[in-house]
Write a structure and sequence with these properties.
- The protein has 288 residues and is an alpha/beta fold.
- It has one domain.
- Strands 1, 2, 3, 4, 5 and 6 form a six-stranded mixed sheet that branches.
- A hairpin with a 2-residue loop joins strand 2 and strand 3.
- Helix 1 crosses helix 5, helix 2 packs parallel to helix 5 and helix 3 packs antiparallel against helix 6.
- The relative contact order is 0.14.
C-alpha cells in the first residue's frame, strides 16, 4: 500500500464511501481512468493487435417488496437495477461491459449499465481498431474493424464456411474471459451493495484499475515487460491463488516463478490478429 502513497492509518469505511460518492457525482472516476490509459500508452503498452469486448452480470439485491423504491429510502435494495434473463437464469442488477487488449490482457475501456441493456447496445471499439466479439453482438456493426461471431437465425443454419470464422475468432477471444472471471472470483466483485448505476460504475473503475495493476505485476514478475513504475519501486509479487483456483500463473511470495511454458506456435501468434480471420472470412450478403 505504501507505493500508492497511502497514510499509515487507513481511512474508515464512511470516509471511503463519501470519497466514492463524490467521484460519482463529479465524474472524476472517468478522469482517473483516462489518466491510467494515458500512462499505459506512454510506457509503450498501446493496443497493437486488437481488442476483445465482452460483458458480464453484476448482481444486486432486488429486495422482497413489490412497491417502488422511494428516492431517499435507506435500504440496500437497488434503485437502478433491472431484471434480465439469459438462458434459463434470471439476473437482477447491473452489467459490466469491458474491452481488453489482446497483447497484454489489460482492460482498456469499461461501461456500466443495468442488466436489461443488451450487450450489442454498447460499443466500446474505436475506428481503425480490431475488435473481437461473441455471438451476442451479431447483427450490430462495431465502430472498429468488426470481427463478430455469426449466429444462426430462424430458418438459416450456419454452413461449414460460416462456422470456420467463428472457430478462429473463438480461439482468439477466449483470453478476454480471464479478466471477468478474475474480477468475480478473486476480487469478489460479482455482487454489489450500492444502488445506482453511477455508484456501480465507480466501483467497477476501481476494480478494473486494480486488475490492471495486478496484470502489470504479473508481466513484470515474468520479465515480459520491464518495471514501468518508479525507479526505486520494490518488485511486486501478486497474491497466490487459492488451492484449485483457475489462476496458476502466479508464484507464491518469496519464490521465483518458474519459466513460463513455451508459446505454442499457431497462426494466431503473428503480428496482425485479423489476417487469419480475414483469409477465411466468408463475405456477408451485403458484400456479395
Amino acid at each position: 500500500m505504501k507505493f500508492l502513497g497511502f497514510p499509515d492509518s487507513i481511512p474508515d469505511s464512511r470516509t471511503i464511501w463519501l470519497f466514492r460518492e463524490r467521484m460519482a457525482q463529479t465524474g472524476k472516476d472517468e478522469s482517473v481512468w483516462e489518466e491510467l490509459q494515458r500512462q499505459l500508452d506512454f510506457k509503450g503498452l498501446q493496443v497493437r493487435r486488437g481488442t476483445i469486448q465482452d460483458a458480464t452480470f453484476i448482481e444486486a439485491d432486488p429486495g422482497g417488496s413489490k412497491k417502488p423504491r422511494r428516492e431517499n429510502a435507506r435500504t440496500r435494495r437497488s434503485r437502478d437495477g433491472t431484471w434480465a434473463k439469459k438462458g434459463e437464469e434470471l439476473h437482477f442488477g447491473y452489467k459490466l461491459h469491458s474491452k481488453v487488449d489482446i497483447d497484454y490482457g489489460l482492460i482498456r475501456s469499461i461501461e456500466s449499465t443495468t442488466s436489461s441493456v443488451h450487450d450489442s447496445r454498447v460499443d466500446l471499439s474505436v475506428e481503425g481498431e480490431v475488435v473481437l466479439r461473441d455471438k451476442g453482438y451479431f447483427g450490430v456493426k462495431a465502430k472498429g474493424n468488426d470481427f463478430t461471431m455469426k449466429r444462426a437465425a430462424a430458418g438459416h443454419t450456419l454452413s461449414d464456411l460460416d462456422q470456420l470464422p467463428n472457430r478462429l475468432i473463438s480461439k482468439l477471444r477466449f483470453p478476454g474471459e480471464r479478466q471477468l472471471a478474475f474480477i468475480k472470483r478473486v476480487f469478489q466483485s460479482a455482487h454489489v451493495m450500492v444502488t445506482t448505476v453511477p455508484r456501480v460504475h465507480v466501483k467497477m473503475v476501481f476494480t478494473a484499475f486494480a486488475y490492471n495493476l495486478y496484470q502489470l505485476c504479473t508481466w513484470v514478475q515474468y520479465n515480459i515487460i520491464q518495471s514501468i513504475f518508479w525507479t526505486n519501486f520494490t518488485p511486486c509479487t501478486p497474491r497466490p491463488p487459492a488451492p484449485g483456483s483457475f489462476l496458476r500463473s502466479s508464484a507464491p511470495p518469496g519464490r521465483q516463478p518458474s519459466a513460463p511454458p513455451p508459446t505454442r506456435q499457431n497462426p494466431f501468434d503473428g503480428p496482425e490478429v485479423a489476417e487469419e480471420v480475414l483469409r477465411h472470412r466468408v463475405p456477408d450478403a451485403g458484400d456479395r
